[in-house]
């Protein structure tokens, strides 16, 4: 499952590494893509969303919004996300 987190507080490559490492502590096989300018972290993982959100927040960042997608292709084909969870 692909999850997109809207994250505040990221500003440099150290932030990218910190967020990536925090997620991978819970799922070594996770595919993590960080977009600093947009403040987005896209994660493909089998780990629970709440666990990933907590990992990012424990690394010192603020998660403002979470969007789940069945897959990158399915989300684009259907015109958007399958749901949104604001926390």
Entry keywords:
87 residues; alpha+beta; Alpha-Beta Plaits; globular; disordered C terminus
Q: What's the rounded overall pLDDT mean?
A: 85
What's the Cα radius of gyration?
12 Å
Going by CATH, the architecture would be: 2-Layer Sandwich
Number of helices: 3
For this structure, the quaternary state is: single chain
Outline: globular
Report on the architecture of this protein.
- With 87 residues, the chain is an alpha+beta fold.
- It has one domain (2-74): Alpha-Beta Plaits, CATH 3.30.70.100.
- It has helices at 13-24, 49-58, 72-77, and strands at residues 2-8, 31-35, 40-44, 62-69, 83-85.
- The protein is 32% helix and 32% strand.
- It has a five-stranded antiparallel β-sheet.
Question: Which SSEs are present, and which pair or pack?
Answer:
Elements: E1 2-8, H1 13-24, E2 31-35, E3 40-44, H2 49-58, E4 62-69, H3 72-77, E5 83-85
Antiparallel strand pairs: 1-3, 1-4, 2-3, 4-5
Helix pairs in contact: 1-2
Question: What's this model, at a glance?
Answer:
The protein has 3 helices and 5 strands, in the order βαββαβαβ.
